[in-house]
Design brief:
SH3 type barrels, elongated, alpha+beta
Length: 173
Amino acid sequence: MEGFRLPPIMFTEDEANALLTADLIIQSSKDTSLIVKFSEALSKVRAAMSTRILKKTELLQQKMGVSNVYIDGSPKSKYLLEIQKALVAHLVVSVDYTSKEGKSSQRKLEPFAVFSNQNNEWVLVAFCRLRNDFRTFSLINIDTFIITSETFEPHKMTFPQYLEKTYGNKTDK
């Protein structure tokens, strides 16, 4: 299994609380792959925490929450972590996608970037070979997702340049 090894780590109470808070935020995320893998990683981190810190974070956990976890029944995506793998490996992906209007299509995409929009939904920015241009795809609307073995040449544009070109946003990064 591919992975990373970390030496024993000692967490302060503030660091443990920050992880707990990050967990709450991620649990409210709209991507199940992120939720599951972060929970698995956090379980390993909790196993390394001192009993004193662990008890305090468990107490704090009972007194914190993110409201949209309890009231938001909207659909969740499930491909964020797979998209991240394809993005950094420059692998073409094949998706079955349903638009907001309910139209289905198959696309071959060159992943470029992912971002969370104002609705906390993950969005893939990709070069679409069907349209021969960059397009955005809500992860919630991706019905099937396959990473192919085909590679592509990374695009020269940066994500901040894409945002400025597309939305007129100036970024500092």
